[in-house]
Design a protein that fits this description.
Layout lengths: L1 H7 L4 H15 L10 H23 L6 H25 L5 H29 L4 H22 L5 E3 L3 E3 L12 H23 L1 H6 L1 H18 L9 H7 L2 E4 L3 E5 L4 H22 L7 E6 L2 H7 L7 E3 L4 E5 L3 H13 L16 H12 L1 E2 L2 E2 H9 L7 H4 L10 H19 L1 H10 L2 H5 L3 H12 L8 H8 L10 H16 L3 H14 L3 H13 L3 H11 L7 H16 L3 H14 L3 H15 L3 H6 L2 H11 L9 H11 L3 H5 L11 H16 L3 H11 L9 H24 L1 E4 L2
Parallel strand pairs: 4-5, 5-7
Antiparallel strand pairs: 1-2, 3-4, 3-10, 6-7, 8-9
Helix pairs in contact: 2-3, 2-4, 3-4, 3-5, 3-6, 5-6, 5-7, 11-13, 11-35, 13-14, 14-17, 15-17, 17-18, 21-26, 22-23, 22-24, 23-24, 24-25, 25-26, 26-27, 27-28, 30-31, 33-34, 33-35, 34-35
C-alpha cells in the first residue's frame, strides 16, 4: 500500500522528496556544494523553482485546491536539503552555520515562492499545456542573465532562479549583502502578491487575467530595463559614463577614469605595441576595433564588472576588462583572446567546445611570460620536479579547472607553443576553431604528448624542488576548505587591521584558523602581535606552524617573515639563519633578493630600524645603502617604494650616475627592473640602454627571455612612441 501510494501519488511529494534527497546527497560529494553556503543554496534554489512550480500545478488540477496542503508540501521539501546538509556538516565541519542559513533562506526560500507564483500565472493562461508553458517561462528567465553576459560588459548577474552569480571563481570571499537581500525581497514581494491575488478572488482574477498578465509582464520588463540604474546589471552606457575618458587609435580604444593622463598614455602605447606583436605572431588582426576598459582598481572592477581579481576578455564583444593595478601582467594575454576571435567558433568566437585549455593556452602562448619567467622554463621546472600534468586530460572536459590554475595555464600555453613550432600557426588556428586534433595534425594527441614531454626534460632543473613548490604548491578553490568563508573573513579581518582595530581582527584571524590553517591569517595574527610588541608570541605562532606549509609557497614566505620577527626581537643569530637558508634553497628570486638585502642592512646594524620604518624612511635608508656602490638587491625595492611614494623620476635617477656593471644575476635583474621603470616614466633612451645592459649576463638566467622582450619593447618605444602618441585621439565623454 505504501509503495503504491509512493509510485502513484499524483501530487508528486514523495517523488520530489526522493529527487531532493538523492541530489543533495550527491551535492555533499562535490567541492563547494558540500558546504552549507552559497553554492549549496544556489543549486537547491534552481531545483526548488522547478519542484515548487510542478507541485503547485499538480495540486491546482484537483477539483478543490487546498492552500494548506501546498504550504505543508513545500515546507517539507524545503526542509529536506536543509536537514541533509546540517547532518553532513555535523559529521564533517561547519564553515559558518549563519552564513549558510542566510543564503539558504534568501535564495532557496525565495525560489520556492517564485516557482509557486509562476505556476499560478501559468494556470491563469492555460490548463491544457501548463507544464510546457511553465518550463518555457523558466527557460526564458534563465536566458535573461545569459543575454546580459553576452551583450553587456558584466560577468555577474542576479536572477530569481538562483539569487545571483558573483562573477568568477577567483574572487573567493563571498557573503550575503544588502544588495542580494533587496533583490530577493523584490522577487518575494512579486511572488507573494501574485499568490495572494490568485487565492483572494479567483473569479475576478480570471475575469481580468489579460490585464493582470500584462501588468506582470510590464513590471518584469521595467525592472529589467532599469536594473542597470539600481545596480543589478552593467550596460555599456553605464560603464562609459563612469570610465568617461578615452584614448583612441586606429585599432584600439582605451576607456579610463581616475588614472593619471601620463599613465593612461603609457598604457595606450603598450596596447599598440602588443597589438603589433600579436598581429605578426598570429598572422591575423581583429576585424573590429578593440575596446579596453581600464578600472581604477580591483574594487571598482568588482562592483561594475563582477570580477575583481581576474582580468577578462570577451572576444565576441571585442572588449577586455582590466585593472590599473594588474594590467602589466595581463594586457597582452587579454588582447590575445580578442585576436583569437578571428578563428574562434560559435557565437562566442572562442575555442571549439568551450575548451578552456585551448582558450587560455592560446593566449598564454602568445604572452609567453609569467612572473618575468618564460612559461616554457616554468613548465620544465614543474615537469622535472614532480608537478606533471597529463596534457591530453588537460585539453578534455573541465579538467583545466580541477587542479592548480598555475599549472593549467603554463602547461596549456607551452603545449600550444610546442604545436606552433612543430606544425605552424595556421594548423594551430584550425585546431582552435574545430577542436579536431587528429584530423588537423594528422597525429594522435598521445603521440604528440610524448614528444612534448620529451622536450621538457632538463636535468639542470631536477634539483629545483623548493622553487617548483613555490610556484605550483597552491590549491585551487575547489580543493580548499571553506574558501568562501575564509575569503570573506580575511577581507574583513584585514580591513579591521588597516583601521587598527586589533581585537576584532584577531578574533577573525583566529576564527579562520579554527576552520583551516591559513597563511594569510597567520601573517595577520603575527602583525597584530608585532604591533603589540609581543614578539615572542609572533615567533611561537610562526615557528609552530610554518613547517605545516611544506611544499607550498607559504613555507618560504612564513620562514622569511620569521626572520624579520627574529630581527625585531633582537635575535640576529636566528634572523640571519632564516635569510641564509632561503638564499641557499632559492625558492624564489625575489625572496633571495630580499634576504640578501636584509643581510646587507644587518651588516650596517640598521635592519631593525628599516623593519620598523615607514615607507619614506625605508626609501631613504636604501638610498644611503648604495652611496658608495650599487646594492643590486635593493634596486627592485627602491623602485617599488618610489612608485608608492610618487618620487620624482628625475630625483630618483640621479642616484644612478655611477658605472653600472652587469656580471651576475642580481645586477642583470636590477638593470632589467630599472629599464621597466625608465620606460614607464618616458625615459626611452635609458630604458633601452639598461635593457641592453641586462642582457650581458646570460648564464642560467631564468629571466633572459623576459629581458629580451623588454629590450624589444624599449627599442620600439624609442623609435615609435612619440609618433604613435601624436596619432592618438584623446577626449572626455560628457
Amino acid at each position: 500500500m505504501f509503495f503504491k501510494k509512493y509510485l502513484y501519488d499524483r501530487n508528486g511529494l514523495w517523488i520530489y522528496g526522493s529527487v531532493l534527497i538523492v541530489l543533495n546527497i550527491l551535492l555533499t560529494q562535490f567541492p563547494l556544494t558540500n558546504t552549507f553556503g552559497y553554492e549549496f543554496a544556489a543549486v537547491n534554489g534552481l531545483l526548488f523553482v522547478v519542484i515548487a512550480g510542478l507541485q503547485t500545478l499538480s495540486l491546482l488540477k484537483k477539483s478543490e485546491f487546498v492552500i494548506e496542503k501546498l504550504i505543508k508540501n513545500l515546507f517539507i521539501l524545503f526542509v529536506i536539503p536543509f536537514l541533509i546538509i546540517i547532518v553532513y556538516s555535523l559529521l564533517t565541519m561547519f564553515c559558518s552555520f549563519w552564513d549558510g542559513l542566510i543564503f539558504y533562506i534568501l535564495i532557496a526560500g525565495t525560489s520556492i515562492l517564485f516557482g509557486t507564483a509562476i505556476a499560478f500565472i501559468v494556470n491563469l493562461i492555460t490548463r491544457r499545456f501548463n507544464r510546457v508553458l511553465f518550463f518555457l517561462i523558466i527557460l526564458f528567465t534563465a536566458l535573461i542573465p545569459i543575454l546580459e553576459i553576452y551583450f553587456n560588459p558584466q560577468v555577474y548577474f542576479y536572477s530569481p532562479l538562483i539569487g545571483f552569480f558573483p562573477g568568477n571563481i577567483y574572487d573567493e570571499g563571498l557573503s550575503a549583502d544588502w544588495k542580494l537581500a533587496f533583490h530577493q525581497l523584490i522577487v518575494a514581494v512579486f511572488s507573494i502578491s501574485i499568490i495572494f491575488l490568485y487565492l483572494k478572488n479567483t473569479s475576478i482574477i480570471l475575469k481580468y487575467k489579460k490585464y493582470i498578465i500584462a501588468s506582470i509582464i510590464i513590471t518584469a520588463t521595467l525592472f529589467q530595463l532599469f536594473s542597470s540604474s539600481i545596480g543589478y546589471s552593467t550596460t555599456f552606457s553605464k560603464l562609459n559614463s563612469v570610465l568617461n575618458k578615452q584614448i583612441e587609435s586606429e585599432f584600439l580604444i582605451l576607456h579610463y577614469d581616475d588614472i593619471d593622463s601620463t599613465e593612461a598614455k603609457f598604457i595606450a602605447l603598450n596596447q599598440q605595441y602588443y597589438f603589433n606583436e600579436l598581429q605578426v605572431q598570429l598572422e591575423t588582426k581583429p576585424s573590429k576595433k578593440i575596446n579596453v576598459y581600464l578600472f581604477n582598481n580591483r574594487e571598482q572592477k568588482k562592483i561594475l564588472f563582477g570580477a575583481g581579481n581576474a582580468d577578462v576578455a570577451k572576444p565576441w564583444q571585442y572588449s577586455i576588462y582590466i585593472s590599473a593595478d594588474s594590467w602589466q601582467n595581463t594586457l597582452k594575454h587579454e588582447l590575445a583572446h580578442i585576436f583569437t576571435a578571428e578563428f574562434g567558433s560559435g557565437i562566442f568566437k572562442i575555442a571549439s567546445g568551450f575548451n578552456a585549455a585551448l582558450i587560455e593556452g592560446m593566449a598564454e602562448s602568445q604572452d609567453g611570460i609569467s612572473d618575468d619567467i618564460s612559461i616554457e622554463h616554468l613548465t620544465k621546472l614543474a615537469y622535472n620536479n614532480g608537478y606533471v600534468v597529463n596534457v591530453k586530460s588537460l585539453f578534455t572536459g573541465l579538467s583545466f579547472f580541477k587542479g592548480n590554475s598555475a599549472l593549467a595555464y603554463i602547461y596549456s600555453g607551452t603545449f600550444i607553443e610546442f604545436l606552433i613550432n612543430k606544425y605552424g600557426i595556421e594548423k594551430v588556428k584550425q585546431f582552435y576553431g574545430n577542436g579536431d586534433f587528429e584530423n588537423v595534425f594528422n597525429n594522435k594527441i598521445e603521440t604528440v604528448q610524448k614528444d612534448f614531454e620529451q622536450s621538457l626534460i632538463d636535468e639542470d632543473l631536477s634539483d629545483s624542488k623548493p622553487m617548483a613548490d613555490y610556484y605550483f604548491g597552491r590549491l585551487s578553490i575547489i580543493q580548499k576548505i571553506c574558501p568562501r568563508f575564509v575569503g570573506d573573513r580575511l577581507r574583513k579581518a584585514y580591513q579591521y587591521l588597516a583601521e587598527n582595530n586589533l581585537d576584532e581582527a584577531e578574533n577573525l584571524f583566529k576564527e579562520i584558523n579554527s576552520k583551516t590553517l591559513n597563511y594569510s591569517a597567520l601573517i595577520g595574527l603575527s602583525e597584530i602581535y608585532i604591533r603589540q610588541n609581543k614578539f615572542q608570541l609572533a615567533i611561537d605562532l610562526l615557528s609552530k606552524n610554518w613547517k605545516k606549509f611544506e611544499h607550498t609557497p607559504y613555507y618560504s614566505n612564513l620562514y622569511f617573515r620569521l626572520g624579520d620577527i627574529y630581527s625585531l626581537s633582537n635575535d640576529d643569530t636566528n634572523s640571519e639563519l632564516c635569510y641564509k637558508t632561503l638564499i641557499d634553497e632559492n625558492p624564489n628570486f625575489n625572496l633571495v633578493l630580499l634576504s640578501n638585502l636584509r643581510l646587507s642592512l644587518m651588516e650596517k646594524n640598521i635592519l631593525k630600524d628599516y623593519l620598523n620604518a615607514d615607507d619614506s624612511t625605508k626609501y631613504n635608508l636604501l638610498r644611503q645603502l648604495k652611496n658608495s656602490s650599487y646594492n643590486f638587491s635593493s634596486i627592485p625595492v627602491l623602485i617599488s617604494l618610489s612608485n608608492e611614494l610618487k618620487i620624482n623620476y628625475t630625483n630618483f635617477i640621479k642616484g644612478f650616475n655611477k658605472t653600472f656593471i652587469v656580471d651576475n644575476l642580481e645586477s642583470s635583474y636590477a638593470a632589467f627592473k630599472l629599464s621597466e621603470y625608465m620606460l614607464e616614466n618616458g625615459d626611452y633612451i635609458n630604458a633601452r640602454k639598461y635593457a641592453a645592459l641586462s642582457l650581458r649576463f646570460k648564464d642560467r638566467n631564468i629571466f633572459y627571455y623576459a629581458m629580451q622582450q623588454q629590450f624589444k619593447k624599449s627599442d620600439w618605444f624609442y623609435k615609435n612612441a612619440d609618433q604613435v602618441l601624436n596619432s592618438f585621439t584623446i577626449l572626455t565623454i560628457e
